[in-house]
Amino acid sequence: MPDTLHLAVALDGLGWHPAAWRLSAAEPSAPWQATWWTALAAEAERGTLDLLTVEDSLAMQSSRPDGPDGRTDQQRGRLDAVQILARVAPTTRHIGLVPTATVTHTEPFHLSTAVATLDHVSGGRAGWRPRVSATSAEARHFGRRDIPPVDPLRLDAPQTAQLVDDLFAEATDVVEVVRRLWDSWQDDAVIRDTATGRFVDRDRLHYIDFTGRWFSVKGPSIVPRPPQGQPPVAVLAHVPAAYAFAARQADVVFVTPADTTRAVEIVAEVRAAEAAAGRVDPPLRILADLVVLLDETPTLARRRRDRLDELAGAAYASDAALFTGSPAQLADLLTDWHRAGVDGFRLRPAVLPDDLSTIVRGLVPALRDRGLFRTRYPGGTLRDLLGLPRPVNRHVAASPA
């Protein structure tokens, strides 16, 4: 296990707690302003975090598993994550920028060009979190397929299991097509030789000719190969099907252990999925997700949580564990989970910008005191930050031995 850990932050609206907008120091309209996102990114970069992610979906936020809930007391609506980070890119210099984009109803060609463009405009700091959609509400926005309602209490029902398998198989094909499109331009395809009048070398542009169950894509891309060659792909995974998807197609996996024991078990499950997939690439970087609600003392943090739950009308529950306490206590927890084999963490601030500021100004110094986090950026791309080599283009012949 390396001595230092990776640290990321997940940004969503005014925070992950549904009542965050009621207690945030920001105006409720802030998430619809570019300055909100650039300020959050600047704060995260001030803490030398590896990357930030921005949440997105193709349906309105809801407290129900599928469809609108009719509530008017919680924040609803988002801006497009890819476009947010395209705006953030020129205001930052080091931090990785990873938008969420749904693969279930989006053409892989569009996803490829969007993320490749973000990698170009950020100087090699883009990533991508492909998201699978299993809701009928999102499907109805497009009208191209029927997705039956899923009962969250019967996820092992045969129809649901088949749906999940199909969605992840489709997602695997989407990421494969995106990766092939990123490689459809060789690194030296753009010549720009004014003397000869040759702008590109057409022999270094390639058709991908992909035909699968859900789509066929000819290629090549319209965007030259990204600076990183292959921007890192990150997957949020809770179940074996998602671990298998990550093992086949991702570089980073976000997992959701509830405690140290479960962290050990999940790391083992992910590594087993890699072995089953015959993975030969660098191992997945495993980052554990935690919702964090921080304050100077545990008592003050609990008071904030109780007030938020009171405003929301219910105790907050999430797919990820909720940590409530001081930065020093959180640093101790992260140390334990890191020893359990987790490579790093993606923290979800309960309230923005409050908990992000405490992460940067309280947690990061505590981790540095423990020798677990860097004091400055080393420079380079997001792949460099994650310790991932730049892949060789698949169309470049291997050098003779």
Give a short overview.
36% of the residues lie in helices and 15% in strands. The chain has twelve helices and 13 strands. It has helices spanning 20-23, 34-46, 81-88, 108-121, 136-140, 158-182, 240-249, 260-277, 298-312, 327-339, 354-369, 382-386, and strands at residues 6-11, 51-54, 96-102, 129-131, 190-193, 198-200, 210-211, 216-217, 234-236, 252-255, 285-294, 321-325, 344-349.
Could you describe the 3D structure shown?
The chain is an alpha/beta fold and 401 residues long. It has one domain: Alpha-Beta Barrel (TIM Barrel), CATH 3.20.20. The protein contains 12 helices and 13 strands. It has helices spanning 20-23, 34-46, 81-88, 108-121, 136-140, 158-182, 240-249, 260-277, 298-312, 327-339, 354-369, 382-386; strands at residues 6-11, 51-54, 96-102, 129-131, 190-193, 198-200, 210-211, 216-217, 234-236, 252-255, 285-294, 321-325, 344-349. The strands form 3 sheets. Strands 1, 2, 3, 4, 9, 10, 11, 12 and 13 form a 9-stranded parallel β-sheet that branches. It has a two-stranded antiparallel ribbon with strand order 5-6. It is globular and about 70 Å long. It starts with 5 loop residues before the first strand and ends in a 15-residue tail after the last helix.
* Main sheet properties: 9 strands, parallel
Strand content: 5-15%
Instruction: Give me the secondary-structure category.
Output: alpha/beta
Q: What is the mean pLDDT? A: 94
Q: What is the second-level CATH architecture?
A: Alpha-Beta Barrel
Shape: globular
The domain tally reads 1
Which ranges are low-confidence, i.e. pLDDT below 50, for 5 or more consecutive residues?
none
State the share of residues found in helices, binned by percent.
25-40%
- Measured on Cα atoms, how large is the radius of gyration? 21 Å
Q: Could you state the CATH homologous superfamily?
A: Luciferase-like domain
H and E string:
EHHEHEHEHHEEEEEHEHEHEHEHH
Terminal CA distance: 33 Å
CATH C-level: Alpha Beta
Strand segment count: 13
- Tally of DSSP helical segments: 12
Q: Indicate the CATH topology.
A: TIM Barrel
